[in-house]
Design goal:
Strand order of the largest sheet: 5-4-19-18-17-6
Helix content: 25-40%
Distance between the termini: 43 Å
Bound molecules: ligand MGD, molybdenum atom
Length: 767
Amino acid sequence: MPDDGIMHGSHWGAFRANVKDGRVVGVTPFDDDKDPSQILDAIPEMLYGPTRIAEPHMRKSVAEHGPGANPEGRGAEPFVPVSWDQALDVVAAELRRVKADHGNEAIFGGSYGWSSAGRFHHAKTQMQRFMNLFGGFTGQLHNYSYAAALAVLPHILGSAEASQGPVSDWDGLLRESKFILCFGGMPLKNAQVDAGGGGSHTMADFLKRAEDQGIRFVNVSPVREDLEGVPSAEWIPIRPGTDTAMILAMAHVIASEGKADRSFLDAYCVGYERFLAHVMGEDDGQPKTPDWAAEITGVPADTIRALALALVETRSYINMAWGIQRADHGELPFWAVVSLAAMVGQIGLMGGGFGFGMGSVNGMGNPRERTPSPTLPAGVNRSDSWIPVARIADMLLHPGEPYDFNGEERVYPDTRLIYWCGGNPFHHHQDLNRLVEAWRRPETVIVQDIWWTATARHADIALPATTTLERNDVGSGGRDPYIIAMHKAAEPVADSRSDHDIFTSLSDRMGFKEAFTEGRTEREWLEHIYNVSRQLASRRGVEMPGFDQFWENGHFKVPKPAEPFVMLSDFRADPDERALNTPSGKIELFSERVAGFGYDDCPGYAAWREPKEYLGSAAAAKYPLHMLSNQPKTRLHSQMDAGGASRRSKIKGREPMWINTDDAAARDLKDGDVVRVFNDRGQTLAGVIVSDIVMPGVIQFPTGAWFDPLDRKSPGAALEKHGNPNVLTRDEGTSKLGQGPSAHSALVQVERYDGDLPEVTVHQKPV
Ligand SMILES: Nc1nc2c(c(=O)[nH]1)N[C@H]1C(S)=C(S)[C@@H](COP(=O)(O)OP(=O)(O)OC[C@H]3O[C@@H](n4cnc5c(=O)[nH]c(N)nc54)[C@H](O)[C@@H]3O)O[C@H]1N2
Ligand SMILES: Nc1nc2c(c(=O)[nH]1)N[C@H]1C(S)=C(S)[C@@H](COP(=O)(O)OP(=O)(O)OC[C@H]3O[C@@H](n4cnc5c(=O)[nH]c(N)nc54)[C@H](O)[C@@H]3O)O[C@H]1N2
Ligand SMILES: [Mo]
């Protein structure tokens, strides 16, 4: 290994850790990285900063009176340090008690979240492996990223591959595409990361090459910067939440001009007639004309018409960002894209068709052979209890109550204990004031994290985990081609322990340590999971080096396929032999099955349904700005918020918020002002950036500032001091079909804040 640092990896890229006297003092981006992420430089500061949980802690009432004492005190009471043995004894006893009295499903161990890049020490998987050996737990289905897509796409296409990947790769797009139409752009800010990490940030390079060779790009988005990687891209601002209306109008143009590809529709799709009837207004009396859509979307009718015709006149590709389905009725814009692409008829052709999430993470469209990543097996959950991922507060507030989900009638379990490890619900969930309320319901809350995040601050028992730099691991995203040897660079800080060690101690107390560890050391585990992946790769013709050599080299790059991957090309070549896993075996532009569910909020085809909150709704009279709480440029969700680029980006300590020149002038705002952003659900402070990168009527207010309410005792009414947009977002499912998070559908008002600025305290150690 070269001596200029210790090879390591993170979700935002591989790097070498520079170590001096046993301490990590800096990081150097990995040599292969074409475009390293600015998020890297927070690492040393976060490693040793004041927000590290130094030792196990208990909430004061719990330390004094035992588990279950004063749940109202969660997030408000001080913490008391305790020994590892004390903490683990209480955790083990609580787990046993809840299991005995209420059954395993009363243990909520979904633990949604990204954890860290290493695949062996992957915190959530470690916890779920432990819980499965303990008899099971209530889990979470799908993810916050594209939950609506995961529910709806299998009905339309037989799988969720179009959103999950692999989508058609860049090699094919660069070869054949002439026109790339992007809803929500392909944001470089988002391509800084991929789950499991990666070796090189390639999105900027792909975009530049595409632009250099003359591919036309159009960015349909409320935010111009969503396609900053292509300076020549045309920007078409659109009102958030209205893409479906624009796409229906494009379908109207193509159909009216007789340009729909009837042979593709006949051979590969079902339900076109039914979809067309909606587009032409035969079912509801409203033809979905460009003039109709212009009213809803703010996009001029001529622009809609021209874009529709451009799609059919040349080899064209449609990309839609995942974020667009993270909204009320989020299933429908994705269905609309598939329907439009089917009419264009280029699905399965190189450089044509559609895909979701190119630019949402670095690995999408990154060419590589499809070999499976090393992963720790979590085992089987015998309790078979789960909720749709984003229904956590509903579950806590409504145990035993029924709800609809994807054709099923389900009932929320009764949660007595929460164990969260590797995720941050007080970052990721919507309507956080409601979550604070819901979070008081269970008897015990255990949080295992590295830092005093808002979630750790809402624990009864907080257990300190190590960062990846304090342990050895293997990083691999599965979409990005690199597998990274993550070498340990430092000893555990203070009294922290790896998640694996913590669960080993707990499984020892429970009597199944041998089953949990399988008798392997850390090194033996890494070698084992690497070798499983190596064998599977070999079956696909990819030869990975032996573990020792891989570890020494520091990385392995999975090769590219000989020919570019084109999504659905196999189906196009042979629709009978490679029939889709849908009821008809074809692309379902109308789904009998979805229509049969009879949901008022998700019909059986791509229709326009008004979101509950958008610029066209009645609520806009009171709250006239649409808030996009999109992904932050300077960190990964809430990770690294207390250091580096994130901390430097704050304005008077508050999270920045972008507001258009007109909207700023109307409120007498200038750069650097602090504002109160509010609606009926909450209020928060933000720092102002006046910029025309956002269209009028829209604010960009990224997620991830650590939740920091002013009055921890009554957070329902409290002012959030730091700029966390999730105090303002709606906590309602996308629809009964997907029940995904609908964070992007939120209206707010903004006003200058001239009061005394309360100190942001969440980046300090809690009391
Ligand atoms: N308003 C709004 N909200 C959103 C979104 C949005 O667009 N708008 N996007 C949503 C999306 S797509 C997502 S994926 C979620 C992300 O939500 P999360 O994945 O929950 O967010 P992270 O901040 O990455 O949280 C990971 C947590 O794991 C901890 N952690 C990291 N490594 C380790 C480890 O090794 N061990 C342990 N024990 N802990 C570790 C980190 O400290 C952090 O607290 O947010 C969602 N929330
Ligand atoms: N730096 C960084 N990168 C990240 C993350 C991070 O936290 N930090 N998170 C990662 C994760 S977990 C995920 S899931 C992905 C998420 O990737 P996405 O879901 O694609 O990310 P978003 O930023 O929510 O949305 C992308 C863009 O869509 C635009 N948009 C929002 N609503 C609408 C709409 O109604 N119509 C149109 N046309 N455009 C709209 C917004 O301007 C936004 O910038 O990002 C990943 N990348
Ligand atoms: Mo995500």
